[in-house]
Each structure stands twice: as structure tokens, then as C-alpha cells.
Amino acid sequence: MFDIHQAFRRSLQNPEIAYPLAAIIALTELIENSDAGTMFELVNAIRQGAETLKSKLENPIGVDAGCELFIAFVTLFHHESLTLTDLKRELIRQGQKYAEEAMTYRKKIAELTVGFIKDGSILTHSHSRVVMQTLLLAHQHKRISVFVTEARPRGLGLKTAEALIAAGVPCTVVLDSAVAYVMDKVDFVLVGSEAVVESGGLVNAVGSNQIAIIARAAKKPFYALAESYKFHRLFPLSQYDLPSHNSKILSFSSPSRPTRSASISRPAEDTTTASDPPTASASTNDTEPTSSTSITQQQICKTNPHVDYTRPDLISLVFSDVGSLTPEGVSQYLVGMFAG
Amino acid sequence: MPDKQETTLPTQQPGAAAPKPAGQPSQKSMTKAERRELQEKQRAAKAAAKAEAPKGGAGGSAAKTKGAQAPAKKAGEAGPAKQSVLTSKELGHAIPEEGAGKRGPRIFTHFGLPKPIGHTVKGDIHPAVVRLGLSFSEFKICGANARCIATLTAFKNVIQDYTTPPNSTLSRHLMTHLSPQITHLVAARPMSVSMGNAIRQLKLEISNSDIDLAKDVLCKKIDDYIQDRIIMADEVIQESAGRKIKEGDVILTYARSSVVEKVLLRARSEGKKFSVIVVDSRPLLEGKALLRSLTSGPDPIPCTYALLPALPSLLTEVTTVFIGAHSIYSNGAVFSRAGTALVSMMAKQRNVPVVVCCETCKFSEGILVDGFGKNELAPAHTVQPHGSTPTPTSEPGLEVLNPLYDLTPPNFITAVVTEVGLIPPSSISSIPLALGKTIL
């Protein structure tokens, strides 16, 4: 029995491969192992596979983007003259060819972005492979210095800083809370992406939205780098409209002592209601001296979001292998790709 | 025949190219202000004449004066009636009078003044179209979708009753037959964009068709258009927009949009628990009908009804704003019931997402940047006086300005839901290309 998760994990073992691409490769392998008799059955099997893949993931956006792209390709593929076996073979071949080509996308994006980089300082967020490649390429041609945010709770920013320092790029780690402090020293902001959505907005590691808002306030450009397989037809209306949002995120813990004040004693709510943003996780509990519960980093990690949504009006440009796009242009590209 | 010799006042024959009487400078040499003054004087004189005429003189001459003031406008009786001759020149155009000294509001006159109901039927108009014209001008059928469907249904009747004259074919002659019907509808009420697109599509079908096109085929094509572009499109929109409604949401909507109504009812029938705020405004108060529709039925939605001035205090509670559209332009601007722009702008200011539900048959290729370029004034009978507010009949100097539509700029819209998906307003212009059409 073909296990799509295994195939998915196997592709991910190559550190260069991003989630959407791994999903496409896994679906290609699904076609290879499929015994569907007709085109219709094959497409159904692919859809099923995509669903199974997404169900096990906490943050399915990237995988969803890759799956949608592949399914659109399969359904629009010109197949009248081919038999089913020929068709399958052709689809697999195309899938593998696409995967190979997609490995060159990061290089293309890096080359495109370097044209926009002048000598100066750059702010980046967390760890992104495409941003790494861009910064290393820029370092060969220009004099840049990089500020990296720590990106708690996972602390991936440290990985970026270590790699850059090893390559000889002047680099320092900035606290997530010190982004506003450092913004005036920075020439522009460069971030990677998990997905770029229909509205032209960006879904990326939590903290990107904050940085974008601060960059807008300080009048610095905010650039996002995204390979074309990360473009998604999703349209979030707000932070809480993301598929990764659930009721656990930013929920209040139930009180353990009856003497707590009324505001903290509200039970864990469904945070999709109303417009008032839920307050930060209950770190106020710490001040209660008789409390026996202490907050651990793991708890914080569990009740906080992993990704956030940056609105399109905060983004200056999106650099992709299809070229440099304005946020409005992203939607026009997506409409051109998927509609009709 | 009017007796012109014994005049003491200068007389002007309407439309005559005769030399202007002495004592009155030629119209061209006067400045605009002077010409306006002259107009005012003439109108005042005419009003005075009208007031005087029933009083002074015998009943006979009074009747004559009244008769002379009818659209023929060739009056030239002795005495006070002479003054009416002066005014006849500028009354040579076809707008019938609404009352002494009335000329409608000073601004927005480029939309055409609202036509009174019960106007005459010119030419050979099908009774279904006459009925429709009356329904339009009395606002019995209101709303872009309703008007479009009603128009197409009426045209189906026309086509069924149509017989091709000898020596001509259906595809060539039908268009000339339909044109006066369309003109009649436009005279009743200016055409909506959805109607315009539908008629353009119909014309395309007729002109592209075979030489021996059957009437049934054409009627089937009309049915298909209604089914695909309106009914099915609404289904898809209900589903896409419904996904944006979550448990516990507070949805705000304005006036009454047929699509938004369907979206809300459908989301409710799927079992979601949410509440709705219906914002409404005079004079049409369409929100009341929406309120009735949402709260009646087996599973009523908890609703709040408010008027437009209450909006700022309500917006703090709102999760999403859903609005409908009369039409949407290539730059993403939404043309909708007057008041919608206020709602959208205020919502956007408070970071409340604004979602517009609009079928692609309402897209217009033009670009509109404000509500002044294209609009429609509601006729005076739609404004019911409220308590002791002064009305134009009670105060002669008072005019009522009642534009029906306004324009919401694209940067106040978060998303547009169409049958081809959820798109940002800036991508409206790429939809026709993506659908493989060169025209909408």
C-alpha cells in the first residue's frame, strides 16, 4: 500500500527541498504506484492523496499550494491522444522535470534580487533558504551587513546568523522586540515565505507581520522572496482566517485558584469571535506568588501561532522565479494560471 | 392665431431665426450671468402670469391661457399672457413641467431629471415591456439582478410573439424590432450594467447566428444566460462567501442585496451560528425587506436593525462586512446603493474586512472614479415626507436631491467574491482575459 507520507518525508530528507515541492514529488510517486483505470479515477486518487497529506500537518498551507498546482496541471494536461499508461508516464516525467527545474528557482530569485541590493544593511526574519542564497550571492558582489531576528520560540534566526557569519557576512542577532529599535538603521527588509496568497499578502513565520508594519511606519521597503510553487489561491480576510488558526492558539488557561481576578478566569475561548484581538498568553500568571503552575517555553510554543499573515499593502515587492511582482500582480498571475 | 401687433413687450417666436426685437440685447452678447438673470426674470414672470391668469380676465381667456401653456407653447394672448411668450423659448425642450417655477436640482442635472410616471408609449411596444417599464419607474422591481432577469424574461415574450416580416430574416430584423423596446425601458429608468451586458450578449447571439435561427434556440440561449451567469453564479458565490462566515461572527450588511441575502441564508442553513446587523437608510428603506427575510423562516438569524448614522458605534462589534454591488468597474471600484461607500470606508478605517459579492455579469469595462460621473436621481415620489420636514410642495425654494448610487474606491474593498473565485479588487481587469473573453 503506497504511503504518501513516507514518500513526502523521504523527499524532505533533501534539505534543499521545500514543503510544496516535496508534496509535488510525493504526488508524482503516487501516480507511479497508482492502479487507476481511467483519468477520472487517477485525478480522484491524486486529490485523495493530497487530502491525506494535509491532514497530518499542523501548517498545511505550503503543502496545499504544491498540491493545488500539481492537480491543476494534471487536469489541464492535454491528454486526448494518449492511452492511460502513456499519460501516466508523461505526467510522471513532467512532474520529475518540474522538480528538477524547481531546484534552480532559488538561484533565479537570488540573481533577480541582487539587482535591488545596494551596499548597506538588511533586516531579515527567521530562517529562509531562499533568503540565505540571496544574501550569500549579494555578499559576493556588494558590501552588506545583516540583522537577523531571533524568531522565538523556535529560534531559527540563530541558524541564519551562524551560517552568515561562517560565510564572512557581518551579522548580528536582534531580539524580536527590538525590531522597531533597529529599523532606522536598516535599508530594507527581506523575508522568505511559506506561501503568497491570492490577495497578494504573505504567509510567513510569526513576526513577519510585525516587521512589515514597523517597516511601513519607518518608510523602509519590505521585500518578500517566494518561489512560484508557493503561490496559493487562498484569500485570508484576517489573521484568524488562516487555515492554521485553531481554537488552541492564544487561548486562556483555566484558573487553578478561585482567588484570581475575573479577567484571567475566563475559560479557553474560541478565538475566532469578534474583532478584539486576544491578549498575549497568560504570562500575568507569573505574578501570583501562591501559584504552583509556572509557564514553560513549551507551553508558550503550543499556545502561540507559528505563521502569520501580512497584508498586501504592507509589502513593496514580491520576487519570484517568474519575475518581480507587485502584490496586485500576484493575483493577476494566479488568475492567469488557475482560472479557465 | 396669436395677435402679435399690439404688443408693448418684445415678442419672440419660438425657434424663429427672425432678428431679435429691439430693446433686448442678442443672447450671445450677454454674459452667462446676464442670461441666467434673464431666465430667472422670465420664469418669475411666467409664474406671476400663471397666478394672475385664473384671477384676471374672463374664464374664456383664462382657459385659453391655460391651453396655451400646454406643450404646444405658442401662446400670445393679450395682456399678462404675453409674458408667457417670453418664457416659451427656453421651454421648447421636452421636459414637462412639474409645477410653477420648478426646474429640479441645480447639480446632477447631467443625469437627466427623473421622469414622471405614466409617460406615453411611443411606437409599437410589446405589452410585457410596457408592464416592465411601469414596474421599473415605480420601483416595484428593484435591484440589478431582479431587473436583469425581468428584462430578459420580457424579451423572451417579445421574441416568442415576434414574426419575421417577409423578405427578411430573423437574425437581421429582430434587432431593429428590439431597439424601440429597449429605448422604452431606458426611458422608464436608466439601464443597469447587468441589463446592458445581457442585452449586448443577446445582440451578439443574434448577429453571430445562422441565417435561419429559430426563435426557440434564442429563447434557450436567454434561459442559459440567466441560469449560468446569474443563478449558478449565485450558487458558487454563496459557497465561497459562506466559507468566510464562521461560528460566532457578527456580519454587517447594508440595504438589500439579493446575493448577500442568499449567502446569509445559506450559511444559516448549514447550521452556522452567527448574527447579522442590517444597516439601512431612507428613502427606500430596503433593509426592512432583508430583515423580514432573515428573521422569518424555520431558522431565524438573530439580527439587529440600525440606520446609517448609528454605524460608528456598531462597527466595534463587527467581524466582516458583506455588501452587494450594482456594478463593478475595471479599476475595482464598486458602484452600489447610496450609503455603501460610507459603510465600506468606515469599516476599512477600523480594519474590518469588506467583502463584495458580485457576479461577473455585473462587470463593466469602464473606469469610474467618483459617484458624479454616472448616477441616477430617484423621482420625487419615492421620498415620503417624514413628520414635519419641509417638502418641495410646501416650500417652493426647496429641492430634494436623491442620488440612488455611490462609488466605493477600490482601496476600501478587501475582497470581491465572484463565481470565478475570491479576488482582490485590483485583479478585476484580468478576469475577462482569464475567462478567454475579449468582452465581458
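qc> The longest helix of chain A spans residues 84-102.
qc> done
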